[in-house]
Design goal:
This protein is α/β, with parallel strands linked by helices and 603 residues long. It is 37% helix and 23% strand. Among the domains are: 197 residues, Aminohydrolase, N-terminal nucleophile (Ntn) domain (Glutamine Phosphoribosylpyrophosphate, subunit 1, domain 1); 174 residues, Rossmann fold, CATH 3.40.50. Bound molecules: 5-amino-5-deoxy-1-O-phosphono-D-mannitol. Its EC number is 2.6.1.16.
Length: 603
């Protein structure tokens, strides 16, 4: 949530900041701003809306250093006064911030009663506090920043500039991501390497509760006591082409299309040429030792946990419980004797999931983060990490991460099951079956035009819809409905098909779209078809998505049959396309739906 950039020592500072913000727009896109200076003239430019508005306002403003921010509003609405950067009382200090300062009202009351504030943000209070310590209490800047950090509670990534020292950016971080980018004769600050990959592929991590003094030719990392910390840089394995849209109109469509490749990449990563599992033996051992696996996640990742649950249990004989991270952080149920936590998270930065991990670590519970982002917070803080290797996912609506998470869990489950000597796991030819699933995805992807036409007929102006299914199809229905509502704003519920008649069927009336998913077995299919009859009899407009082996001539979308353990991977593809086309046909911004952001770094 919110993206930060900064650069010092480059004549193209304005352009570097704005290009960086464009790459971070996925983190928040309701307003943005930059502060740029050439040492003599300082420019503070802000705009409500997308970075394009900011770029237009910035025009040909020049500078050698600056900081910038793209916002996902938490404190105060999206407006120019609330957009970052914020400035201290006299305007000497300028600050951008990602995170939430929990005690900002208390700080205002205790330290800043005589200060005037322009907006409602917590960030403005932080920069006033730093300004007060320097200008009223006569502290030097570093001491003032440290003193402010010792008072501030909550999550933050800060980048601070001082008009009296325009060649330095001070940064600090706690629980919010922030990296240093190392250029040739200039240095940068960013929330995500993607923002600065045009400029450099050499980055430096900052740990929580560290402060960094960034100048054009030096970077000094300190802990809050002032001890200098040695830090090596690393090369980010990111390619410019990974983060571009290419010829695609939207990232979401590109990412949907990438799924067969991702499946094959996972095969190459987690199995060797003979098809043997290639998973870190320490992870396998840790799962083997657990008497219950708890998968904790949010949104689509939470749905992926459900999609993998039954397969994982069957292959390992270990019970799996799925928890919604935002609840578990505060409302942890009674755990088994030897629990292991698996954090599923595309971004590896989701604050709700991190909250659970902090509790797990405090209780010495072994943890595994399955994430798409190496070096992300959840990856660094968990006992073990498995990567999704899906390439950057930029559209807010998660697609390839969902299928990659199910596939990664399948590799883990097979490795554990084999280590347990479980026949079911030994006989399950995952490499072969996942290759078939990749082909099934390809086949569905070749039907885009037909799917688009069906969407145009079924959902032209609908305000609400239902996805129904049984077993794994129910879990896919949950994900399908999240995807549809997230980007088309159609209110949609994913429902267990048999449960409708216990209340919800009263919502079915003439023309309500009901999308039914049928895979796995004849018995389940027969029951779901019965439920379809029930809604059709009450006027619902039904669209069926059915596995080939169970399909009839009257079904609408046919999905090539795959192994039942992997059916969620193939069944979800048409639903991703349905959401995409519904959003597109309504003229919406598919990649950046309203009120949302890609990485949710606030609780
Ligand atoms: O990065 P994470 O997987 O932890 O993100 C969790 C959710 O915020 C995310 O899946 C969200 O629900 C997506 N926008 C759904 O498409």
């Amino acid at each position: 949530m919110c993206g930060i950039v900064g650069v010092v020592g480059n004549d193209q500072a304005t352009d570097i900041l704005i290009q960086g913000l464009e790459k971070l727009e996925y983190r928040g896109y309701d307003s943005a701003g930059i502060y740029v200076t050439d040492g003599k003239t300082n420019h503070l430019i802000k705009a409500v809306g997308r970075i394009a508005e900011l770029r237009a306002k910035a025009g040909d403003t020049v500078g050698k250093a600056g900081i910038g921010h793209t916002r996902w509003a938490t404190h105060g609405p999206a407006s120019e006064v609330n957009a970052h950067p914020h400035q201290s009382q006299t305007g000497r200090f300028t600050l951008v911030h990602n995170g939430v300062i929990e005690n900002y009202l208390e700080i205002k009351k205790v330290y800043l009663t005589d200060h005037d504030f322009k907006g409602q943000t917590d960030t403005e209070i932080a920069v006033h506090l730093i300004g007060k310590f320097v200008e009223e209490d006569q502290l030097d800047v570093l001491s003032a920043f440290k003193k402010a950090l010792s008072i501030i509670e909550g999550s933050y990534a800060f980048a601070l500039m001082d008009t009296k020292d325009p060649e330095t950016i001070y940064v600090a971080k706690n629980k919010s991501p922030l990296l240093i980018g190392l250029g040739d004769g200039y240095n940068m600050v960013c929330s995500d390497a993607m923002a600065m990959i045009r400029e450099t592929n050499q980055f430096m991590e900052i740990h929580d509760k560290e402060l960094v003094i960034v100048k054009a030719n030096s970077v000094e990392v300190q802990d809050y006591e002032g001890y200098v910390q040695k830090r090596d840089s690393y090369i980010a394995e990111l390619d410019l082409s990974d983060i571009g849209k290419g010829t695609y109109p939207f990232y979401m469509l590109k990412e949907i299309d990438e799924q067969p490749t991702v499946m094959r990449k996972l095969i190459n990563t987690y199995a060797d040429a003979e098809g043997n599992m290639n998973i870190d033996s320490a992870i396998v051992k840790s799962v083997q030792e657990a008497d219950r696996i708890y998968i904790l996640a949010a949104g689509t990742s939470y749905n992926a946990g459900f999609a993998a649950k039954s397969m994982f249990e069957k292959l390992t004989d270990t019970p799996v419980e799925i928890g919604v991270a935002s609840e578990w952080g505060y409302n942890m149920p009674l755990l088994s004797e030897k629990p292991m936590f698996v954090l599923l998270s595309q971004s590896g930065e989701t604050a709700d999931s991190r909250q659970v991990l902090v509790k797990a670590n405090a209780a010495d519970i072994p943890s595994l983060t399955i994430t798409n982002v190496p070096g992300s917070t959840l990856s660094r803080e968990a006992t073990y990490t498995m990567l999704l290797h899906a390439g950057p996912e930029i559209a807010v609506a998660s697609t390839k991460a969902y299928t990659a998470q199910i596939a990664a869990l399948a590799f883990l489950a097979k490795a554990v099951g084999e280590a347990n000597g479980k026949k079911e796991a030994i006989e399950f030819d995952l490499v072969h079956e996942l290759s078939i699933a990749a082909q099934s995805i390809e086949s569905t992807l070749s039907e885009k035009e037909q799917i688009s036409e069906k969407v145009a007929k079924l959902l032209p102006t609908s305000r609400n819809a239902f996805y129904i299914g049984r077993g794994n199809d129910y879990y896919v229905a949950m994900e399908a409905s999240l995807k549809l509502k997230e980007i088309s704003y159609i209110q949609c519920e994913g429902f267990a098909a048999g449960e409708l008649k216990h209340g919800t069927i009263s919502l079915i009336e003439e023309g309500v779209p009901v999308l039914a998913l049928i895979s796995s077995s004849e018995a389940v299919a027969a029951h779901t078809r019965g439920n379809i009859q029930e809604v059709a009899a009450r006027g619902a407009s039904v669209l069926t998505i059915v596995e080939e082996d169970l399909a009839t001539d009257t079904d609408d979308i046919i999905v090539n049959t795959v192994h039942p353990y992997l059916a969620s991977i193939s069944m979800v593809i048409p639903t991703q396309l349905i959401a995409y086309f519904a959003s597109l046909q309504r003229g919406l911004d598919v990649d950046k739906p309203r009120n949302l952001a890609k990485a949710v770094t606030v609780e």
